[in-house]
Known about the structure:
Number of helices: 13
Order of helices and strands: EEEHHHHHEEEHEHHEHEHHEHEH
Largest sheet: 8 strands, mixed
Structural class: alpha/beta
Number of strands: 11
Shape: globular
Strand order of the largest sheet: 4-5-7-6-8-9-10-11
Radius of gyration: 37 Å
Amino acid sequence: xxxxxxxxxxxxEGGTAVVGTDNTLAAETTTAPAxxxxxxxxxxxxxxxxxxxxKRRRRPWVLTALASVVGVLAVLVTVLMTxxxxxxxxxxxxxxxxxxxxxxxxxxxVAVVLAVIARRRRARAATLIAGASAVLMAVMTAVPxxxxxxxxxxxxxDVSIGRFLTHxxxxxxxxxxxxxxxxxxTAGSTELKLDHVPGRGPARDPGGTRPAMxxxxxxxxxxxxxxxxxxxxxxxxxxxxxxxxxxYRLLPHADWQTGPGDVKAAVGYIRDNAARFGVDPSDITLxxxxxxxxxxxxxxxxxxxxxxxxxxxxxxxxxxxxxxxYGTTDLDDVxxxxxxxxxxxxxxxxxxxxxxxxxxxxxTASSPLNHVRPGLPATLxxxxxxxxLISPSQSRLLDRAxxxxxxPHRSVELPWASHLFDLTxxxxxxxxxxxxxxxxxxxxxx
Length: 446
């Protein structure tokens, strides 16, 4: 049988059809198995892609949630730092936000990192929220910082931006090396103690003596302890001062007379033991913060006043300087400008032992402003312009009264600074305060 080569067909062993054309045989490549393999691979790739996409789709909501938390915190801090709300709760929250506003640097970094991650994951909502939060927090860090740098220049104080950027929270509050604890007075069964940190370096006075600094802690006359002043005590000691931090009796075991009396007893004890401590008894500075600032002014301004005798008998309790950080000067005015009037009013009434109507004489006598007269110790007052608890109006009232009485004084108001503005060591407000104290010391030296 003759086969036509132009039309004959044959099958190879694999079942591949062979077609002869022009007396030649051409192999037709089988596509079925290849197609099957390709389809399987494609399906596998699609499945893997779908799984990866699913994971990516599950992750954006987590990033968005995290970004939203950062965003809420950014808005909350901004509101607390810029909008005064007259309630105790918001005043206390503002105190934390303002005192630690340099912590927004960390928040900026967190928001930036979150925004970068969100962008790489193509999470648009999270990217926008985190990015906006980073910008907002950066602004809330930069604006106060710029204002404080300008204030430092106005006060002729050098500040370190590097120290500002690298400072830690509440640094330097450990007990300074070489500290000794002594009892300076006994009130009933209560021993009142002080911590003494010897001055470092050579004595600045020709006679080999040093100036002394006596720190009075704050706490609304009700809480606090002498160790609250360790950071400042160390700072003064490093600059040649013999530094002291003291106890005083707290409410409810004290009244409007015992606080100033305890502070005076500490000063008298240091003066009487000046040779032991190597200090110049005529060069003592009383330094207090908040309620401690109030007591420092009261003790310094009422020397010799029989209404405020020292807790222990001492012939001389006078001081050369008084430094008050955000201290109350007028109990009648202090509640008028506070965003926490209830808290301030309650603390003042407990301190005095009644309302102005119930204890008018005690109320009047407990305001340092009412003791201003010629011949008082030189006074430095430093206050935060954004203090919501004890308004800077307190320092302004004192500034005018001291000027009228011809008392050497200086008043500094720090922009964007709140109550406890020196809570963190190295921040710009504390650096300015340190510089101003050094200037004040030089201006009032003999």
